Amino acid sequence: MERFTHFLSTADLWSPEMLGILIGTGFIVGFVNTIAGLASAISYALFMAMGMPVSVANGTTRPGVLLQFFINSLLFRKAGVLPIRTATRIGIPIAIGSVVGAQLAAHVSPHIFEWSMACALPILASLLYVDTRSVTHVRLGTESKVSPVQFALFILIGCYGGFTHAGVGLLIIFASVFLLGMDLLHANAVKQFAVVVYTPIALTVFILNGKVNWPVALIYAVGNVAGGWLGSRVSIRRGSKFIRWCVTLCVVLISFWLIYKQFNR
Fold first, then answer.
1. Which letter does DSSP use for residue 146 in this model?
2. pLDDT band at 17; cut points 50, 70, 90
3. How many Cα neighbours within 13 Å face the side chain of 50?
4. CB-based contact 61:44 (threshold 8 Å)
5. Do the Cβ atoms of 68 and 225 come closer than 8 Å?
6. CA 166/CA 69 separation, integer angstroms
7. Could you write out the DSSP letters of every residue in 56-115?
C-alpha cells in the first residue's frame, strides 16, 4: 500500500498508468453514484493519496460531478421518469444550502459530518425495506409540491452537499421518498437534476478559494461521464428494487469505512 501511495504522489499525471487510474476510478464512482451514492469517498481517498489536501480533493471532484449528472438528467428525462418541476423545486433549496456547506468545506474538518453520516445512513437505509406504499403516492407524470418545512430540510441537505458530495445523493433519495412520496426510480431521477442545480454554486465557491486541481478534475471527469451514462441506463432498466439493493450495499460499506476512519486517524 505504501508503494502504491508513493507511486500516486510521484507519478507523471499524463502517464498511461495515471490516466488509467483516474479515468477508471471516475468510471466506477460515476456508475455507483448514479445508481445509489457515496462513491465519491473513493475519489477523495485517491486524490488525497496523490498529495491533495482534503479541501482540494473535495473541490476536484465537482467538475466531473456536474458533467456526469447533467448527462444523467438528460437520459432520465428522455426515459420519462424525471419530474422536472419537482426536481427544480428540490434543487433550489439544496443550492441555497450548498453555499454555506461549500464555505465550511474550504475551512472546516469533516469529522463531525462523517460521524453523523456513519450513524444516520444505516437507519435511513433500513427504512427502505419498510412497506413504503403508505408514503409512495406520486403517480407517473405528476409533480410534487414542496412545503416550507420540506424546503428548510432540503436546505440542510444542500448544506451537507456543499460540504461534501459523498452521500448527498442518498439524502436526496431518502427525502424524495419519505417527504414527497416518490418511488425509488423517480427519486433517483430527481437526485440527478437536483445535483445539477446545486453543483455549479458549490463549484464556484471551491474555484474562488483555489480548491480545484483542474488537470486531474478534467481527466477524472471523462470516467465520471462514461460511468454515469452506463449507470443511468442500468438504473432505468432495472428499476426500484435494483436501486434499493445498491443503496443498501453502499450504505453498509461506507458506514463501516467512516467509523473505521474515526478510530484510525
1. -
2. very high
3. 22
4. yes
5. yes
6. 14
7. HHHHHHHHHHHHHHHHHHHHHHHTT---HHHHHHHHHHHHHHHHHHHHHHTTS-SHHHHH
Q: Tell me the whole-structure pTM to 2 decimals.
A: 0.79
Q: Tens digit of pLDDT for each residue in 240-254?
A: 677 777 777 777 776
Cα-Cα end-to-end distance for the chain: 17
Contact at 8 Å (CB) between 69 and 190? no
Beta strand residue intervals within the chain, DSSP E? none
All residues at 6 or more sequence positions from 108 whose CB lies less than 8 Å from its CB, including other chains: 163
Torsion of CA 187, 193, 199, 201, to 10 degrees: -120
Domain ranges of the chain: 2-262
* Closest to 60 (Cα-Cα) out of 71, 68, 48: 48
Task: Output phi, psi for 239, to 5 deg.
Answer: 80, -165
Query: Which positions ≥6 away from 156 have C-beta within 8 Å?
Result: 97
The closest of 159, 182, 193 to 89, measured between CA atoms, is 193
Summarised one tens digit per residue, pLDDT across range 99-134 is 888 777 666 666 665 666 667 667 666 665 655 555
Contacts of 58 (CB under 8 A, 6+ apart): 44, 105, 164, 165, 206, 211
